[in-house]
Amino acid sequence: MNLKIALLPGDGIGPEVLEQAVKCLQAVEETFNHNFTYKEALVGAIAIEKKRNPLPNTTLELCKEADAVLFGAIGDPKYDNDPEAKIRPEQGLLRLRKELELFANIRPVKIFPSLIHNSPLKKDIISKTDFIIYRELTGGIYFGEKKINAEGTVASDLCEYSEKEISRIAHLAFKAAKNRRNKLTLVDKANVLESSRLWRKVVTKIGESYPEVVLDFLFVDNAAMQIILNPRQFDVILTENMFGDIISDEGSVIGGSIGLLASASVGDENALFEPIHGSYPQAKGKDIANPIASILSAAMLLEHFGLFEEAMAVREAVDKSLEKSVVTPDLNAKSQYGTGQVGDFIAHNIVDSEDDINMNDENIGLGKSTII
Ligand code: IPM
Ligand code: MN
């Protein structure tokens, strides 16, 4: 298959982790005879620095022409600590989501058995967790009218949803539930918010066309509690933009590291793949950032194009790195493996998954170089 992939490394650890995902895609090309082409463009704080625009037009055009976008991370403390900043890196990502109409953000939360001890939560609570969050991505409070009065003392952000915006993602979520364990939970705040009551009405109606899927509802405050009390109860969670942002970070605690969670943002015409973690500026350039979320985002890209065997090869190589503890220090404080070495190890195992010849288990255990 030929695929044109736009690479948007962005800020902080974005470039380092994205580089590892590209290594893995190149390993897939080599192993399965595909031809992917990569073109890089600026986004975020680096784009503001170089082009005074967090989403330069050339970047947007490249993304529109590409079959898929692979995204690193966005954000810089310089802007986080300056509430007066008029141009912000995040605006680049938000505009990109809007322009490409990436209305559904899909975030799987699955426990890796080999990492179960990494989570701060008890093993019997989190074992066998396997759910997926469908977060609406181009509406709600993120994109509603923003106001601040002349004195700068009163501000508001409007949370607005239309039936159309709700129904297009609801259909995707119901279809996903049909292919999984037939359960869909709508997370909202319908006891307080009018927009949430519209979500309930629209989703309930759509549910009639998916009789095999059991639909239930949870208020977001209760959902926040249930996700860490009893995560196994969830199969597909459907929710609006901001609730999805918050509960997906919460979901990352289950797996023990936010450096593991991948996501796909899809619309009718475009698709973008990115780790859910942010730019982690403290780790920038230190070769300690976990590349797995970015690599698993590349696996989601492959799946999106029906390359299931290829995606599986990537996931299996990731599993191997976890089992052999060829991981970054967030997963094993004693590990001496850097971002690049973990990426090399995973890419190598995609090319030849049976090839254990050059691997020295003893060295792996000591956190020393193996094949790398
Ligand atoms: C995410 C991020 C973004 C969001 C930020 C960087 C704008 O937190 O993708 O979850 O809030 O959507
Ligand atoms: Mn977030």
UniProtKB/TrEMBL annotation:
It comes from the Bacteria. GO terms for molecular function: 3-isopropylmalate dehydrogenase activity; magnesium ion binding; NAD binding. It is found in: Cytoplasm. It catalyses: (2R,3S)-3-isopropylmalate + NAD(+) = 4-methyl-2-oxopentanoate + CO2 + NADH. InterPro entries: IsoCit/isopropylmalate_DH_CS (IPR019818), IsoPropMal-DH-like_dom (IPR024084), Isopropylmalate_DH (IPR004429). Belongs to the isocitrate and isopropylmalate dehydrogenases family. LeuB type 1 subfamily. This is 3-isopropylmalate dehydrogenase. Its cofactor is Mn(2+); Mg(2+). Mg(2+) binds at D221, D245, D249. GO terms for cellular component: cytosol. Catalyzes the oxidation of 3-carboxy-2-hydroxy-4-methylpentanoate (3-isopropylmalate) to 3-carboxy-4-methyl-2-oxopentanoate. The product decarboxylates to 4-methyl-2 oxopentanoate. SUPFAM superfamilies: Isocitrate/Isopropylmalate dehydrogenase-like. Its EC number is 1.1.1.85. GO terms for biological process: L-leucine biosynthetic process. NCBIfam families: leuB. SMART domains: Iso_dh. Keywords: Amino-acid biosynthesis, Branched-chain amino acid biosynthesis, Cytoplasm, Leucine biosynthesis, Magnesium, Manganese, Metal-binding, NAD, Oxidoreductase. Pathway: Amino-acid biosynthesis; L-leucine biosynthesis; L-leucine from 3-methyl-2-oxobutanoate: step 3/4. Its main location: cytoplasm. The lineage of its organism: Bacteria, Pseudomonadati, Bacteroidota, Flavobacteriia, Flavobacteriales. It comes from Flagellimonas maritima. Gene3D superfamilies: Isopropylmalate Dehydrogenase. The gene is leuB.
